[in-house]
Amino acid sequence: MPRIKSFAMVTGEETAELLARVPLFADLSHEEVERLAAVAVPRSYVSGEVIFREGDTGATCFVLHTGSARVTRSHHDGRAITLAELRPGDMFGDLAMFGGETRSATVEAVEHSTAVALLAGDLRRLLRSDSDIAFKMLSAVADRVRTANDRMSQRSFQGVPGRVAGTLLTQVEARRAEGEVDGDVEVHATQSEIAQLAGSSRESASRFLATLEREGIVTCGRGKVVVHDPDTLRNYIH
User: How far apart are CA 20 and CA 16, in angstroms?
Assistant: First the structure.
């Protein structure tokens, strides 16, 4: 029996507000964002539903509106490595807008989620019709490439403590961006998932988390880590 999607879809006004928060579109004017929102298509997904799979062909990118999603990539030995956790406002699948390559990873809804989809054909027609939009998006893409290069360079010199602390802080900042108040922040992820996000073995990540717990910086629970002192976590990032 097919699963029923009973939750509300994103409206047109919400679409424009959502796209305006996406870094790739941050330099667009209100009118330009509205033109972009006019070609966006609302989507909804139930918990566990695959939005697209690694190796699929695709010409659509997405912006998450509500809920959360997980980006994974298959290892040659059959394991699935978690690359990122997506939160509202995050864009994914955006390489399809320009390259038309096969999907480099799988994206799966972690909970009931809504998103808006931008079809490559619609976006290309919009870019051809308005050179200002094209130039602003090109500048944003260049900024993203520089940021990604800086992140990769920094991470290559970090040990396990720095990578795990950075992973936890990224999750903390995402919760606070969603309106989480100051104080303890729950990161809903297993130690294995944290290790995958940090690019370390589970054993190494677990040892460091145990050290943090002894120091009172975090409390580890089943399927979650409660961060008590994000500022002290920053001391482990070099």
Answer: 6
